[in-house]
Amino acid sequence: MTMIIRKIVFFDKISEECQGSVELKINDLDLFSHYKQYIKEDPNLFLEYPIHENEEHFFHHYVSLKFDFNRYDYFLSCSELGV
Known about the structure:
By secondary structure, the chain is mainly beta. 14% of the residues lie in helices and 37% in strands.
């Protein structure tokens, strides 16, 4: 069985180097509802999607990350964990 781990990955805006990631504790229904415009092309949301400043409030319900959009670019990402 495969488990999908959702996370927010963030990159330095200047160096473009990955600065870290934080696991996102969100149920698929909430996530798919928020990203419904991508479901037709990516029904499981396996691709990476940028997180914009106007989405910060949505993600604060699911992760304790202090967003700094002046320094970092943020992306919704996922990885598979074989169980």
